[in-house]
Structure formats: structure tokens, C-alpha cells
Amino acid sequence: MDMQVVIIDCGSGLCKAGVASNDYPTLTNDTVVGYENKSHITGVSDKRYYGQEALEQKKTLSNPKVNREKITEIIFEKFGFYLAKSAVLTLLGTERTTGIVLHSGHGVKYSVTVNEGNVAPNTLRQMDSAGGDVNEYLIQLLNKNTNNSVNKKDRNAVKYIKEHVCEVMSSTVIRNKSIIKYFSPEGKCFQVGEERYESLTGIHRMIYDPIMNSDIDIRQQLCSNIALSGGTTKANGIIQRPDGYIHALMGHNFQINIAGTSEGEKLIWKGGKNLASSYSFKQLYLGLSKI
């Protein structure tokens, strides 16, 4: 391409950004970032808050309307932009345009059908609980073990335990009662026992329902193109359990293929990279240079 495209995926927990010529985003940071506003005392403070801390401090933080307007002006007049639907980008990240997308991020969990690059709103299914709620519940479970003392400051360690230690139960999984010890980068020890089986639930109904709400002629294609995105979908067993349950619900005549990888958090960004690399993108983006 003769232009440089910057892809920004503002997820509910993490913001990933980078240029389309790279294979992966070069910047990953908490989505919610705030600066302490002390202009009425000593001027603008340099203190920053990230993620949950920023949300908890939102009464003392500010992003004036004039700043937001200026950002929009610069993006439109100097660069140009295109807003894409995350479900479409998720499928594009797997190099497909038709399929089922299940996204489980920090604050959002939904599933929907995408047909030839178009989202089918009638198939959308959302849940009130998402990855952040799982983290909070896992903290409660871990604290039942008197050897643990887990609080909100340990959220990164808890997130890692959820994605790499916890497991989605199925009829073929036998609970291992042994204790797993995880040491955070700060050196704190977390002991994880049977609670690793109790924090996560199955997702098969969120996949099955959009399929059944879609045209019968594309159901096999949907079953063959199921894409999972978001950090919570990296958990152990997240793919194996719905595979078996969907087979039971749909019948074994349907071929089930679920694409879920350790790069689930970057799948939307990868879809943006694939879109930006396509010839059609030149006709999609908006900016003064095209007026």
C-alpha cells in the first residue's frame, strides 16, 4: 500500500495499537487512562491512573470537551479514519467473512452471526457478566484458601491465573485436587486448588443460539467457522467443551470447527491489519483528502 495505516483496537480492558505493516500491535495498554485534574490548585498533575484505578477516580479526572473535539478534528483533517465492527474484524482475523463470533473481553461478552462481512443483528446474544466479573469471582474463590490474600491490586495476576490455570469443566475432565502455586512477577505466591474449575462456565449456548437464529442454508458454514476472541477465551478447555456440546445439540452431521488461539486478545487487531491490507480499504476510509 502507498499509505501507512494505524490500527487501534479499543477493547473494554486493553487497547492495542500498531501499524498495519507490522505483524502484531506495538502498543498494549489499559483502555481507561486518566490524569488527575488539579488545575484549580496547582495546575495539571502528572499523576496517571490506569484501568480500574481510573474508573474509581473518575470524579477527580477530566477530559474536557474541547480536547475531545480537537482530537476528532486532527484525526479527520490530518489523517482520515474508518470505524469497523469488532465482530467483522474478528472473522477477518481468521481470514473469513462468514461465521459465528464469540467475544469475551473484560467488560463485554457477546456472540453474533456474520454473513459475507455483514453482522446479523437478530442473532446477537449478550451476557451481563464478562471477563472482569470472572476476575472478581475468582478473587473471592482464591480468598477462601486461608493461604491466599488477594485484592484488586493483584488483578493482573488473577487475570493470568484465569487465562492459564483455570479450566472449563466438561464430562471428560477429572478434577485434579492438587494445589498449583503461581508466583506473580512481584514474587507474591497464589495457591490455586479446585477453584480453578469453578470460575468459568461453558459457552456452547452462546454459539448454538445464533446458529439456530440464522438461515438454514448457511448453518453448516457457520458451524465450520466459529471464532473466539478476547482474553477469557484463552482459558483451558474453552474450545473442547463447546465442541462436544454443539455436536450434541446440532447432530453429528454438522462439522464443527472452532478457531481459538493464545492470540485471542489480538484477533480483532489482526482483522484490522487484514482489512487495511486489502484493496477495498482505500474506498472505505474517511478524510478531507477524499473530499
TrEMBL record:
What job does this protein perform? Answer: Actins are highly conserved proteins that are involved in various types of cell motility and are ubiquitously expressed in all eukaryotic cells.
Show the InterPro entries listed in the entry: Actin (IPR004000), ATPase_NBD (IPR043129)
Q: Which Gene3D superfamilies match?
A: 3.30.420.40, Actin, Chain A, domain 4 (3.90.640.10)
What is this organism's lineage?
Eukaryota, Metazoa, Spiralia, Gnathifera, Rotifera
- Enumerate the transmembrane spans: none
Q: Name one Pfam family in it.
A: Actin
Q: Which family does it belong to?
A: Belongs to the actin family.
The name under which this protein is listed is Actin
